[in-house]
Amino acid sequence: MTADAPGPDSSPSDDATRLTDAQKSLRAQMLATEHWSLLASRSTTQSEVLTRIAIFLTLVSAGLVTLGVLGNATEFRGWFGVAALGVLFLLVLLGVITQLRVFNTATEDLAYVLAMNRLRGAYLDLDPGLERYFIMGVTDDEAGAVKTYYPFAVRDRSQVFASSMMLMLVVNTALVGLFVGALTYAIAGSVGWSIALGVVIAIAVFALWMSWGYRGYRHVLRAHVPLRRGDGEARRSGPPTL
Q1: Carries keyword Transmembrane helix (predicted)?
Q2: Other CB atoms closer than 10 Å to residue 114's CB: what's the count?
């Protein structure tokens, strides 16, 4: 039993090579537990936001079908205009709420990726020979996050345009354009002005959402202080530690 004794207590500045096998085993178990916790949290967050998106798209479909039914019932006259504006406003409001959640989830997911990359770096501190077995990033900086997201390819614009965030953004801006166009027609009675204002506002809203989402992504990277960077140097005050 003496072979498994924990040995002398380690301080934060201890080199991993000075740890006993028992200490390394204990730290590996603690790191693995944290890794599984991050994986579970990330999976739950992604599942929740995808459910929110599905609910929103279902409501959009139901709302547009409702407008079609009301239009046939009222022959697009009378109180149909008020009902249409009300339904579109509700869909726009739900879209804003859902879009905010999508962007918040994107920044949360980036934080999870950085955290798991940091843990992989900690595994390497315990056993540097493991590095060749990791496909995902082992540095908790932007380069490491990009490698984790796209381990076998260079990230290009198709990754952004094919994302759930972009799907939500297109639907939301289209709804805003429809609402602004309908409101303009109700006030001015001009089809031309309705289309023009709807298109301009939709493009402006799209650009604002993209800018807001990008700033949130960059904010996470600016606020995060990496322990290990892509150049292979550990940004610490001393030797690699856990």
Answers
A1: yes
A2: 21
The reply to whether 125 falls in a domain is yes
- Please say if the pLDDT value at position 92 is more than 90: yes
Q: Supply the range of the domain harboring residue 82.
A: 20-223
Here the contacts of 180-186 (C-beta below 8 Å, separation 24 or greater) are 182/81, 182/84, 182/85, 182/88, 183/85, 186/81, 186/85
- Report pLDDT digits (tens) over 133-161: 998 999 999 999 989 988 887 767 777 78
What DSSP string describes 143-194?
Answer: HHHHHHH-TTS---HHHHHTSHHHHHHHHHHHHHHHHHHHHHHHHH--HHHH
Residue 98 lies in a domain: yes
* Residue 165 within a domain: yes
Residues written for the chain: 242
Long-range contacts of 60-63 (CB under 8 A, 24+ apart): 60/91, 60/95, 60/171, 60/175, 63/87, 63/88, 63/90, 63/91
Is 50 exceeded by the pLDDT of residue 6? no
Distances (CA, A) of 20 to 10, 16, 23, 84, 183: 10, 9, 5, 71, 72
- For the segment 9-18, the average pLDDT, to the nearest whole number, is 54
Number of folded domains in the chain? 1
- Of 173, 163, 174, nearest in space to 207 by CA: 173
What pLDDT is recorded for position 15?
Answer: 63
Contact indicator for 48, 39 with CB cutoff of 8 Å: no
pLDDT for the residue numbered 181? 92
The answer to whether residue 238 sits within a structural domain is no
Q: Angle 75-78-81 (CA atoms, 0-180°, nearest 5)?
A: 90
